[in-house]
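@channel sequence for tomorrow's demo:
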Amino acid sequence: MAEMIKLAGADGFEFNAWHEQAFTPHKGGVIVIQEIFGIDRHVRADVERWAKMGYEAIAPAMFDRLEREFHAEHDDDGIKAGITHARATPLEQALGDIAACRDFLHKHGGKVHVVGYCYGGSLTWLAACKLTGIAAASSYYGSMVQANAALKPLCPTIVNLGRTDPGIPADDVAAAIAEHHGESVPVYIYEGAGHGFNNESPERYSAEAADLARHRTLELFDKA
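structure tokens (generated this afternoon):
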């Protein structure tokens, strides 16, 4: 059964994390990193999906130091609030909370993987490049990936982008990663999909792209 638990970050602060045990025989752990909208129904649904695929899953509430139980709607006010919180959260602090989730999952056995969307896609890329003890990482439409493309992932990593994403130039991101990593970091661009295509809100969801990206991510995690 899914539940909200508390974990201590590197600074000692206790943050909330949405946690669910694996439904099927335990294959390891997955850290699910939120979009800018907080631990909303979409994040919880993704945690459940990973649990059903055999992974103990946990989603840290990245903005707890700023606002407990923050979640925002996908409207102008919600986007503004989420961006404000994301910009006010130091990256090293965010990585410290991800590391706390890694350590928590490692105690239960198996390898630990990271998947993240939007804001979480950027943090997934940074976690793959800066944190040890991560077996594999799948970044979805992270706006900071291109600027940090020169960083070298410490684990097998893939990047998933929507072709029609207005804020992230997919071809430019792919070119930047190819320049530094050749073919060792696959970049998948989903035609007809925009930003947030894994999110099941009607205005963003692309079932075909989401299913294919999840298949590729599951294959990556299962092989790591």
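heads up for whoever presents: The chain has a mean pLDDT of 96.
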